[in-house]
Amino acid sequence: MNKTLVVVVRSLIGFFSLLIFTRVLGKQQISQLTFFEYVLGITIGSIAASLTTDLDSRAWPHWVGLVTWTAAVILVQFVVLKWRYASKFLDGEPTIVIMNGKIMEKSMKAMRYTLTDLLEQLRIKGVFDIKEVEFAVFEKNGDLSVLKKSQYQPVTPKDLNLSTTYKGISTELIYDGIIVDQNLKQVNLDRNWLKAELEKRGIKDPSEVFLALLDTSGELYIDTYADHLNSLNGVTDISDYPGPN
Amino acid sequence: MRKIIFYTVPILILSFFIFIMNSGGYYKRPRGEIDNVPKYIEAVKKDLLEEEWDGALKNAEKLELAWDKVVQRIQFSVEREEINAINAGLARLLGFIEGRDKGGALAEINEIGEHWRDLEK
Lengths: 245, 121
What we know:
The complex is a heterodimer of chains A (245) and B (121). Chain A has three domains: 86 residues, no CATH class; 58 residues, bsu07140 like domains (CRO Repressor), CATH 3.30.240; 54 residues, bsu07140 like domains (CRO Repressor), CATH 3.30.240.20.
């Protein structure tokens, strides 16, 4: 029995099974995970790890465990999606911790959420004075959403009756030196136009460009591989101690 | 077409994995004379009961060779403990045969047979 070969084969089985199962589970990001989902992730990962290296047992039972846990997660996701009442039990609800400027001590106690935690999360949100807060909601994923009192909110162009221009998503025209024809076509432009624009900026070939973006106002942002920085505004070394970077 | 590939490829990959993980029962079946483990287990047992020590030794060695062939095919789908148990059992079996210990050798060959049957379970 070649243990190395068996581990390699079982690793590939675990790796690609996890890849497929996580794709099936959906697009939730780590930052959006609730504590339970976080634990689920660890458990599924742990089963995959046992599948890979625990040669004393067959790979099959581990794989069945992996499938079962994934199926259970999908089932819960489905129930939560279709049944609001169940979602309240299974997924929990956001909790208000500051209401109309008043701290909700009872709610915080029920969640075992301390004042230190609250002040810390407020500081992370850029609020250093609790007086500024009208509402603070402790979200299901452990994040804190803060609504400042109106007098502390930043002024918007609307407050000043200023007209603004539309700003949408920029389109990538060159990515890593390669022209993205699909995107060029999408904005009704062609390679000749792009090459002319590049020549205007002294760029002879698209392969010199790392990234070219076209924003919704028609302005082109270009970053080349060659970063011509003079000695005055050269690359800033942010390291504070000599050694390898 | 893209959608079909999107679903078909993962299904094929998972099916292939399921086959590999459960292929022990299929791959332990003999492909010829040289890797026929059950045949040599029976042959050794018969020789031991008749106290044909030379025949038992010859068949036990053939059993060891057959097992070495089979283990290459089944190693991805069976427990390492079962493989180790058969390896150790074979070593002890050869020792008992060389020492002309009928009881010990019979016990070992029966245990090897049991582990062989349990391989894919």
